[in-house]
Amino acid sequence: GADGEGRRRVRIACISYYLPPVDLIGSGMQMHGLANAYVRHGHQVTMFSPYAKGADDALYQLCPVPVGNSNRVIRFAWNLRKQDFSQFDLLHAAMDDYLLLGKRRPFHIRTFHGSCLAEAMHIRGTRNRLRMLFLGLTEWLSCSVAHRRVCVSANTRRYIPFAREVIPNGVDLQIFRPGEDKSEHPSILFVGTMGYRKRGQMLLDIFEREILPRVPDAELWIAREPAPVNEKGVSWFGPVPLTELVRLYQRAWVFCLPSSYEGFGVPYIEAMACGTPVVATPNAGACEVLDGGRYGVLTEPEKLGQALLEVLRDADRRNDLAARGLVRAQEFGWDRIVAAYLEPVVRQRSVSTTCSGQEPK
What we know:
about 350 residues; 13 strands; alpha/beta; 7-stranded parallel β-sheet
């Protein structure tokens, strides 16, 4: 079929264990955004997920997959085998498709949003590390299931040897865009968790030890983490809704995510799209998204405080970084991402239709 503009409409089944508003995990947020972008481009999308109710802004249909109360991730993967994918033209999975081998299904794309094997090298705790190693094994199994294997970064592709393509994560440039004003006080925004690889606690310690003594009116804004009592210069916003998150990006003077590992790092492109300079530690995702420091500041953890001070104190530097970031963010708009995924599929369907003389389903 085709939409009113003559584009061929594709019936797409998406798979994501994580979805907002329940989960704010990066891969789930990305599949939510991609599914919405597919719909805006005239395609029909059904999302297979554990949840019966999705985000308020979801444009796609939801198909709940039961997971029970224990071993939920494994149950989800197993119960996906019981789903009927025959009515779709395309299956696009973000995870948990590794048990679909031998099941009848349409052309199957698997996107790897990072590498669990790589994350296992940076995560703390034996139990967490074993979990990541198990999930890394399922990623390799997925390679034998999917027809097309895509990584969101060249770094991720190093750990997924059977993947041949890189298509980056996306950002909604209609939502994430520059605001009209910045905050009155020098402000640093952090979005993530305080522990593990995001290293929010490290940033908090640096702020209190190095930033506040030199810039007494500076502020650190922490989003996504449960909010304790605010302290001097530090504001905890908790898991804010999308509109509030965008507003924080727009008003902050600097965005800082000093992760030890990022497969990609979506908050970096969200900040750049909102016209906010990025300061990061040189994890693999940040190095790739910021092009080695061309579009943001990359600095080692021991020099993070000094780097933040330099950007907070230098308006010309902030403006230059913001302008560079806005240019870079355009490369991650959803229109480009959708085209990269679907143009080969639509082209193949058109060729098949021409050869057979029949309209596609």
